[in-house]
Amino acid sequence: MRGEAITAGMTTDPVPWRATVLTLYPEMFPGPLGLSLSGDALARGAWDLEARNIRAHGIGRHRSVDDTPAGGGAGMVLRCDVLAAAIDAAAPADDPRPRLLMSPRGRPLTQGRVRALAEGPGLIAVCGRFEGVDERVIAARGLEEVSIGDYVLSGGEMAALVLLDACVRLLPGTMGKMASGEEESFEGGLLEYPHYTRPREWEGRAIPEVLNGGNHGAIARWRRAEAERLTAERRPDLIAARGRES
Ligand code: SAH
């Protein structure tokens, strides 16, 4: 029985984590994700990235994708019919992947959300441009608005790159020999403890003595205390959130 299962596992390629990005600038992908750990993982087929041009679904000879805002005001708005056509062509209704709209109005991205996304089948990321997208497409296509922070970018592409980078580094095998990520910032609701490496002394600054001692219990306690100190100092909101969860 056991042998059979192993044989089956070896003959079937695992389904890669699959990302589809809808954008007016597909040339921006994979961009930086084609390098380093994410690039190696992409080349290995551990994940898959498809960037699709929203303009392929534009209207008329000029493949127009935007129009002036209803009610007046500055800028242009991405049309709901164009965006819906792009989404429908990229993902059939039964595609299990979450559909995310990069948006400064969205729920701020967290490591917890990233981890959940990385554990799923992949994602579809819609990149806005101009003033944003016609509100109606958000409900009509079940888009979850995701923000990467309280500042405004000129388009959703960089936000999608950030989101994808955060997810891909968590895919099995992607981080190589690096830690599983369990002790990293935000895991367990704390910022990470400080790191040091050689030289042991540099410009009059020494590595904290406990780290040179090889006493793993003491090192773990020191790291924990440092993580708590840094978090209390810099991100009291994280400490408050931990209190609420437990
Ligand atoms: N007028 C909009 C901003 C549009 S910025 C507003 O005030 O809310 C153009 C596009 O950039 C957005 O549609 C979105 O896709 C992307 N974008 C900008 N800031 C972002 C952020 N902080 N997080 C995620 N996407 C963002």
Automatic annotation (TrEMBL):
Residue ranges of the tRNA methyltransferase TRMD/TRM10-type domain? 19-240
Q: Name one GO cellular component term.
A: cytosol
* Positions annotated to bind S-adenosyl-L-methionine: G128, I148, G149, D150, Y151, V152, L153
Q: What is its EC number?
A: 2.1.1.228
Matching Pfam families: tRNA_m1G_MT
Record's subcellular location? Cytoplasm
Name a GO molecular-function annotation. tRNA (guanine(37)-N1)-methyltransferase activity
**Superkingdom of this protein's organism:** Bacteria
Keywords recorded for this protein, A-Z = Cytoplasm, Methyltransferase, S-adenosyl-L-methionine, Transferase, tRNA processing
Q: Which GO terms describe its biological process?
A: tRNA N1-guanine methylation
The chemistry this enzyme catalyses reads: guanosine(37) in tRNA + S-adenosyl-L-methionine = N(1)-methylguanosine(37) in tRNA + S-adenosyl-L-homocysteine + H(+)
Query: Can you tell me which residues the record assigns to a coiled coil?
Result: none
What family does this belong to?
Belongs to the RNA methyltransferase TrmD family.
**Which HAMAP family has this protein been placed in?**
TrmD
Chain's role: Specifically methylates guanosine-37 in various tRNAs.
Subunit and interaction comment: Homodimer.
Supply the name of the protein.
tRNA (guanine-N(1)-)-methyltransferase
